[in-house]
Specification:
Layout: H1 3-27, H2 31-37, H3 42-52, E1 81-86, E2 90-95, H4 100-111
Antiparallel strand pairs: 1-2
Length: 114
C-alpha cells in the first residue's frame, strides 16, 4: 500500500472521529447513546477520544448544574422526583422540571469517573 494512501486514510479517520466526538459533546447524549444512534463502536469512540483529545487535567470536566432555591424550613416539597444511582458510587436526585440535556451531561461526566 503506498504511503500517501495510508497517511490520507489515517488523516481521514481522524477527521471523521473528531467530527463525531465534537457532535457527541454538543448533543447532550451520553457517549453510549450517541454511538448507538450513529451505529458506532463505543470502544472505538473511546479510543479516538483519548487519542485526539487527551485529558490534561487531573479529572473530568465539571458540569454546571443549575440550582433552585429550596423551600423554607418546615414546608414540605411534594413535587415528584427520581433518584438515579450510577455505578454504586454516585447518586443524583432529579426533580420535576429538570433539564434533560443537563442530566445527560451529568451522567456522561459521571460515567467517565470509572
Amino acid at each position: 500500500m503506498p504511503t500517501e494512501l495510508s497517511e490520507n486514510s489515517s488523516a481521514n479517520k481522524e477527521k471523521i472521529w473528531k467530527a463525531h466526538i465534537k457532535a457527541c459533546s454538543r448533543s447532550g447524549l451520553s457517549r453510549k447513546e450517541y454511538c448507538r444512534r450513529h451505529s458506532l463502536s463505543y470502544h472505538a469512540f473511546y479510543y479516538w477520544k483519548k487519542k485526539l483529545f487527551p485529558q490534561t487535567g487531573p479529572g473530568p470536566d465539571l458540569v454546571a448544574v443549575p440550582l433552585r432555591k429550596s423551600s423554607p424550613a418546615g414546608e414540605s416539597n411534594m413535587t415528584s422526583s427520581l433518584k438515579v444511582e450510577i455505578g454504586g458510587r454516585f447518586k443524583v436526585e432529579v426533580r420535576e422540571g429538570f433539564s434533560r440535556q443537563t442530566l445527560a451531561r451529568v451522567i456522561s461526566t459521571l460515567e467517565e469517573c470509572k
